[in-house]
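Internal ticket #5521
Category: modeling
Description: The requester needs a full-assembly model to guide mutagenesis choices. All entity lines are attached below as received. Residue total reported by intake: 1818.
Assigned to: D.W.
Attached entities:
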Amino acid sequence: MTAADSTGPSAEHATAGLSVATKATVLCEALPYIRRFAKRVIVVKYGGNALAGNDPAAALAYFAEDVVLLRSVGMQPVVVHGGGPQIGDLMERLGKVPQFVDGLRVTDSETLEIARMVLVGKVNRDIVGAMNVHGPVAVGLSGEDAGLIAATPRDEALGYVGDIAAVDPAILRKLIAEGLIPVIATIGSDAAGQAYNINADTVAGAVAEAVGAEKLIFLTDIEGIRTDPGDPATLVTRLRAAQLDDLMSSRAVSSGMIPKASACAHAVRHGVGSAHVLDGRVRHALLLELLTPEGVGTMVVGP
Amino acid sequence: MTAADSTGPSAEHATAGLSVATKATVLCEALPYIRRFAKRVIVVKYGGNALAGNDPAAALAYFAEDVVLLRSVGMQPVVVHGGGPQIGDLMERLGKVPQFVDGLRVTDSETLEIARMVLVGKVNRDIVGAMNVHGPVAVGLSGEDAGLIAATPRDEALGYVGDIAAVDPAILRKLIAEGLIPVIATIGSDAAGQAYNINADTVAGAVAEAVGAEKLIFLTDIEGIRTDPGDPATLVTRLRAAQLDDLMSSRAVSSGMIPKASACAHAVRHGVGSAHVLDGRVRHALLLELLTPEGVGTMVVGP
Amino acid sequence: MTAADSTGPSAEHATAGLSVATKATVLCEALPYIRRFAKRVIVVKYGGNALAGNDPAAALAYFAEDVVLLRSVGMQPVVVHGGGPQIGDLMERLGKVPQFVDGLRVTDSETLEIARMVLVGKVNRDIVGAMNVHGPVAVGLSGEDAGLIAATPRDEALGYVGDIAAVDPAILRKLIAEGLIPVIATIGSDAAGQAYNINADTVAGAVAEAVGAEKLIFLTDIEGIRTDPGDPATLVTRLRAAQLDDLMSSRAVSSGMIPKASACAHAVRHGVGSAHVLDGRVRHALLLELLTPEGVGTMVVGP
Amino acid sequence: MTAADSTGPSAEHATAGLSVATKATVLCEALPYIRRFAKRVIVVKYGGNALAGNDPAAALAYFAEDVVLLRSVGMQPVVVHGGGPQIGDLMERLGKVPQFVDGLRVTDSETLEIARMVLVGKVNRDIVGAMNVHGPVAVGLSGEDAGLIAATPRDEALGYVGDIAAVDPAILRKLIAEGLIPVIATIGSDAAGQAYNINADTVAGAVAEAVGAEKLIFLTDIEGIRTDPGDPATLVTRLRAAQLDDLMSSRAVSSGMIPKASACAHAVRHGVGSAHVLDGRVRHALLLELLTPEGVGTMVVGP
Amino acid sequence: MTAADSTGPSAEHATAGLSVATKATVLCEALPYIRRFAKRVIVVKYGGNALAGNDPAAALAYFAEDVVLLRSVGMQPVVVHGGGPQIGDLMERLGKVPQFVDGLRVTDSETLEIARMVLVGKVNRDIVGAMNVHGPVAVGLSGEDAGLIAATPRDEALGYVGDIAAVDPAILRKLIAEGLIPVIATIGSDAAGQAYNINADTVAGAVAEAVGAEKLIFLTDIEGIRTDPGDPATLVTRLRAAQLDDLMSSRAVSSGMIPKASACAHAVRHGVGSAHVLDGRVRHALLLELLTPEGVGTMVVGP
Amino acid sequence: MTAADSTGPSAEHATAGLSVATKATVLCEALPYIRRFAKRVIVVKYGGNALAGNDPAAALAYFAEDVVLLRSVGMQPVVVHGGGPQIGDLMERLGKVPQFVDGLRVTDSETLEIARMVLVGKVNRDIVGAMNVHGPVAVGLSGEDAGLIAATPRDEALGYVGDIAAVDPAILRKLIAEGLIPVIATIGSDAAGQAYNINADTVAGAVAEAVGAEKLIFLTDIEGIRTDPGDPATLVTRLRAAQLDDLMSSRAVSSGMIPKASACAHAVRHGVGSAHVLDGRVRHALLLELLTPEGVGTMVVGP
């Protein structure tokens, strides 16, 4: 081919120095993975922290390019995202002082409105926009849309912090069937229409189970799960759900990792093929995980 | 039937005093309209002002109930909304001072981000939520989703104020085909992924044309179009697009009504059956317009 | 809307005196019922007696309008009818003297031919015609068509009086799927092609079971089921199949009501949601039963 | 195959005397015709006279068997029938004296009701029943069903004698698509629901045109069209529509044959492949015409 | 019909001497069989020996005509063929000397290549070609295509003689659904892509089971199965699988018949309706077996 | 991913030395091409000479892997092949002496049979087999199957050498729609079922036009088209059909390249996006051409 319509950040690091043989080798290596995961749903939790760093816009662009590429080769990605830091930013700008009960943030109705604006109207939009520069492929959703996430209040004292009562994947299936990539902001609602803010890791796991995903992938800012959180050398590349349970029981898993680890263990016991904690700071981590034999991070399998 | 699962605001004003004959009469009267508009798209612009008043939440609940009822009897409603006052509120809370060029508000990137958060993360959510208490029927969309609205900058001096370059109704058709009600926030994006804020009246008209709607309906806060804006007695119930052009040329139409009037005239000349300006302050105005012989407001027909 | 294509008898009693608020209230009240019964089959037995009175043509027109309206809002009505009085009329005109065995009319081949002509060629046609003034929506069927009703002789001494051997609902499902209203004359046939006249109440129940109807409705000429047939004050508005069995055992149900009561009790035990005996003399009884919270008549539920 | 489920009148004349070679020859000879007419609509007008003779029930059984066989090998037959003699019989039994205007029978409302009962409730039923002994394949229709035949009055003085205003073949297409054989009684209706009796030859031609039939076949009681009605030796086996026009102009075609001849000439000029007048008294005339190289009767081709 | 597009060998023995009544009789006799086997798969093993004789091209033409006729009347034929004699011919011409181990021919890679060329490139082509003169209806397949037949080596000493590991009927279902006739050459392949030659009788049985065929038919060169291979008078017209087992145990079935008999017994115990051994030397044996009450050969039924 | 099911020849040259960044770069570079050619048909002529060399089996394996990879990423490859040298081999082994008329080989019926055995039964099989080690994706076809290639004799003196009368792509469309890769041997047949051998370059072009291919690619054994056949430095990377015409007129194109060049020029003028002559000796030439910006060989575009 003598002319390209190359787009995205990959253009910056040219491939000019690679031999055609090298290129062919890499492409061929990806073949069995492409075949294996064709028409399988891949749920990716895209966490704010995973993308922290000098250039968050570039990090998002790499992530978006990966997701669109996976779709191009026949996989069916679904993205779930949170946005804690961004919610905090707007609260601060509005002079809103956070309140806590037993260490958990109280979500009054004003906080909920701020969270919803930020998650649905900013973070979700940014992700959708980053994908849609590659074509009209992404559609933003809130858990409120078409009954996707039914929520219940977790604890009266916490206000509008919700737990998941049920996930109705019908709207996801419809969008996936049309070749679209759903991008989900984790606001749910109850039967009376009241919205709740829900933990994004938990939503990612529940969505993966509801659609029978092949993989549930958490993109975060560490290399994976360690048996000793403070020691990078204790990184585990593959473990069973039971082993992960043991690590959580023995407090070997850091508190910030608990929701992800729990979601991983639950998902692989409820129909999801495997669950992964990847280092989102590695460029194209998603692509490398799915299309090359090199593992990046930790893989959890059942039971 | 001896038990009902009645929901929504209608429960408050009971029908106990009506004879069954009266009820039957009203239901039968609606029959020919239900038949006529079955499987036809009805695009409704839901304006912030139309819903002003003592109890905006109740106004929204009535509106949502109407839209869901229309869908229940086989019509295919699409809702487009703006949110100017709500954007102004958040700007003020954030200490952002509006700037104007030739009377038009300059939209810098911070203003755009605020507008997007409010439109997509608040107003859109409120409308979707009000509908979904009746079942999982509504899905919120931004014009950025799946390439729905391609935008171009209007004027460099105005920043991210956009004009419509193209409407791709594919995602609307897919959602409608699934029995869902799309609710559209009027943010568009260009090929590079840059978002723009677009006039909601203009979007409503363009969407109605793109999907070949049967009706384009503006719910606003006056009775309809008047030949003398200051004189309620000059309300016109029905006029042709050419007559509307004359009214606009002669400055008989108020400036605030111009985008609506222009959209009406353009739409009926481009495949839309009729366009309407209704008084959204009348409870169930939409229902009455579509299911009874009484007209409420002004109807514009081509050519 | 400023122009209507109003049709049917409802035009005669104008709604001019009703406020728009009243109209809106009635329409909204119907919403939960429309939603609940969408895409559900409603089998209505339309009995000759239910429509007796000063103006049978008007009664039929009201009934037809109701059935068409139910279809317009998404229900799937199926009509089953008899025609005893009309058969008697033609027999008399042809000088045919009825013969009885143990109180049951003997149906020789000439009587059968008369019954078939009247049911299929007159009553069925009149019902189909009354509906089709609203559009091409109704299709007349005999139980002989496409194997709909397989019959067996009840008793040799009675001639061509049949019992139902089987109902094959395939043709009903096909017509319903096309948006059509099947209107069924209750002639069945055996494997050799011999036709039989079958009790219409029994056919209505068997059809409702075969298609898994939501409701089985008998339109007749009394207010409903009474615990004392002679005392209107003993009207029951709701009872269980077991209670209905008791009433039949204790002879509290009149003999003319027995086939209907039996069909009701059997149907709700075999997959039909509920069964109803309504007063067909009330104008729009069907509409009121299905679209308002007021009950008209008796509802039977399982078990 | 060592066991058969043979049905129908063919069982009576055994094939025991035929060699297997003879059988194979006949079956193979039919192959190109089966292939040529697969999925093509064949409209057959089944006239009362064609089936006159010693044993009308046997004639009907042969006809029904032929139609079902044609469907079994992939053709799509549609049957249209009249029933003049049978209408006359019932009128006579009811003491109704026919009245004529210019030689045409006046059809008052009582006559119409009789005609409708006989056509829809007797003749149509007999034909459907004769087919359905072979399986649930036939469905009776009146032109009133689902808007099939829109009628207009021919002449006020003739009462309810109708002309065809339009044929809406939607219901025919739906039934054919389901593998069913529509059998049409020739009653039409106007927009107000008034029924009319329509000439069956004319209906057959109009239906054939509306569905784009491959063949329009009139089964009658003469060998075909003759250039001299009184001379069997003048039978024509094949002629063009223009030649048929000439025969009609020169009064060479008998008056009873005129509606058939007109329908033939019109049909082949409006999309029907060929039109045929066959001798219905020949057993299996339909089968022989369609599945063997021997012609029976007259074929009309365009233009 | 006055003109035919008759093709195929049947043209040679004219039907001129047959009365139309005879023809109609034969056609009607076929009706119940056509109805019974519509949309049923009929797997036919076409053996080289069955077609031996003075004029193999004519034999093939008769066979092809039969298969195409069966498809024309709605059956779904699948053809499986071998080609032993033809493989032998080419080996001889190439000077290749057959080698045997325990009486079984050793298939080295050169022999395999010869077998594959002959089966896929000659015999398969000849059969496909003979059918396609009747229209584009046949498609040649090797068991290697689209994973149809997975093979395993039978015995190292025999080289590339394969057993069936699995049959994947997906490609057959797709072709049948498109109205095509698959013609299968019995080469299978293993996971590494190595081809194997497999016994055609065994393949025919396995294919019939995999597609749930109505019938499995072996066309061979004897009248059927005999209880004494040397005595034509001991021909059995119908027997159960258990009886066939007994005949095989007692060596009453000739060695050449063993693979066919085994396949028959296995097939009727694994979902195939019946299995047949027919005399392929009888012209149109297939047609006569399937469309007339006369049996030709032996029918095996379960269990 | 920590485990791979890597298959195919690519395993031999490991990617261990490549950084993950390099791999990601190559994969991302392929994205725009994958998106551009998704669901587009790519017709590849696979010539015997292109694969000549030390290890033809390895060359075939590389080619097969490329084709399967292209399908995996959403393209729709169709392979057309010849097999001249292999035909010559078998003729020689059978002692068949080639005869020529005006430099063209005479194809008598024995030669045709040999050609057909080799093309359909050997070369086609080898290609299908090489692909199907990656899964059940390839299906071999002869132009005789399902009426794919209608042939006419070119010249009586040449015997069964055919020209293309018509290509019916229906079978190709069906197989492609099922996700299968058609592999076409270039034997055509006439209406009487007579087979002909047809030039494979010509078939490739005609097939590409018939299916509206995006690309027509000739894999051969030179770097591409040169303006001076003898001088590698005159290789042209891109030219228009008109320029190619000029090269052919001026005899600058070598005689062996003429059929390819003609097919290229014709194809791009008849709906094919572009035509290519690639050097099949470069490993993964197909992959590199379609998924990287580097061109390998000559591209022809219209007009």
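Resolution: model delivered.
Comment from assignee: Chains E and C do not touch (no CB pair under 8 Å).
Ticket closed.
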